[in-house]
Design brief:
This protein has 2 helices and 23 strands. It is mainly β. It has a single domain (about 25-320), classed as 5 Propeller (Tachylectin-2, Chain A). The strands form 5 sheets. The protein has a 5-stranded antiparallel beta sheet. The protein is globular. The structure holds beta-D-mannopyranose. Beta-D-mannopyranose (BMA) binds near residues 104, 275, 278 and 280.
């Protein structure tokens, strides 16, 4: 496979400690690959099912109406993209009739089901909704699983200590928001026992807000979490990617966190688009035998990128830096 490692200068160091190999054919999916007219597609969850990568593709159609469709691929590069919509803007006040949407899908396989979380927004705030499927053909809508105002939510692939778990980011930035929390649930519908996991601002590249990116990946060392991390600058907000490891038994505890930014926008398709300077990770698929973590990420709110990372290097470097709590970095 053709890959390319960006050699551009890191905002944190001069040489990346954990090289990120972008697929040389990126964007791996863009609007022109769709079987119907569309403006863009980005920020889409994906998982491995058997010998396929299945993606819950987050598309904005020609009229700027958001549509979710399923895409499948044997090699994770060439996707067969469906046109059947599996989730729509809820037909209820205050969402009905608004085009601002549904977006940011993430998929977690859990107890024989594939659970898809996504954000439903309106001018009154965003909320997370859940749907599930066994075969990516028939879907069961499970309704809203947060109150107002939530932006991002990823579900863990197994229960810990008898509870389902998720990482979430209530909306907001500045003093009162933009941090990552963990919540627990007995049934995936009712959530509580919320604890702060990671505060923004440990490092300058994650100074203004953070959010869970890909659903956590279980490794021997801990739950590996790839998250988005934002920095505000004179031209707006730059979306970067960070990595941390959470304790296997108590995932509210950070046991390792990469001090340096793992990935930041460098390529044209990440710098230029509907929203400039955005790399927004939504899927991390581990292959221990290949020592690979495969990432899918939205680029500039316009298309999808694909990248690979050495799993062992990433884990080692996260552990080396320790929890990296505020004031310790
Ligand atoms: C976030 C989400 C993402 C988007 C990002 C950059 O708040 O809305 O869908 O990629 O902003 O625009």
């Amino acid at each position: 496979m053709n890959t390319t490692t960006s050699n551009k200068i890191s905002p944190a160091t001069n040489a990346p400690r954990v090289p990120v190999e972008r697929y040389a054919g990126n964007p791996v999916i863009s609007a022109s690959d769709l079987p119907f007219a569309a403006q863009c597609c980005f920020n889409s969850g994906a998982i491995r099912v058997g010998d396929e990568i299945v993606m819950a593709l987050n598309v904005w159609d020609a009229q700027w109406v958001p549509r979710f469709v399923i895409a499948r691929s044997k090699d994770g590069i060439d996707f067969e993209i469906g046109s059947k919509t599996f989730a729509e803007i809820p037909d209820e006040y205050p969402y009905a009739g608004r085009k601002d949407g549904i977006f940011d899908t993430r998929i977690t396989t859990l107890e024989g089901w594939h659970y898809i979380t996504y954000n439903v927004s309106s001018s009154l705030g965003g909320r997370i909704r859940l749907t599930r499927t066994k075969d990516f053909e028939d879907f069961e809508d499970m309704g809203f699983i947060t109150g107002i105002d939530h932006r991002n939510c990823v579900i863990f692939p197994e229960k810990v200590d008898g509870s389902y778990l998720r990482l979430e980011r209530p909306n907001g930035e500045g003093k009162t928001g933009g941090d990552i929390y963990l919540s627990r649930s007995p049934d995936l519908i009712h959530w509580g026992q919320t604890e702060l996991v990671l505060e923004k601002g440990t490092r300058y590249w994650e100074s203004c807000k953070l959010g869970p990116g890909a659903p956590p990946v279980k490794t021997e060392a801990g739950w590996l979490c790839i998250y988005h991390a934002c920095r505000e600058h004179m031209n707006g907000i730059m979306y970067n990617v960070g990595a941390m490891l959470l304790d296997l038994e108590d995932p509210s505890k950070v046991i390792g966190k990469l001090r340096d930014c793992l990935m930041w926008p460098t390529e044209d398709y990440e710098m230029i688009g509907n929203v400039t300077q955005v790399v927004f990770p939504t899927a991390a698929i581990a292959d221990v035998e290949k020592d690979e973590l495969l990432l899918y990420y939205g680029a500039a709110d316009s298309c999808l990128g694909r990248a690979t990372i050495s799993l062992s290097t990433l884990i080692k470097e996260c552990l080396k830096d320790g929890p990296c709590l505020p004031g310790q970095s």
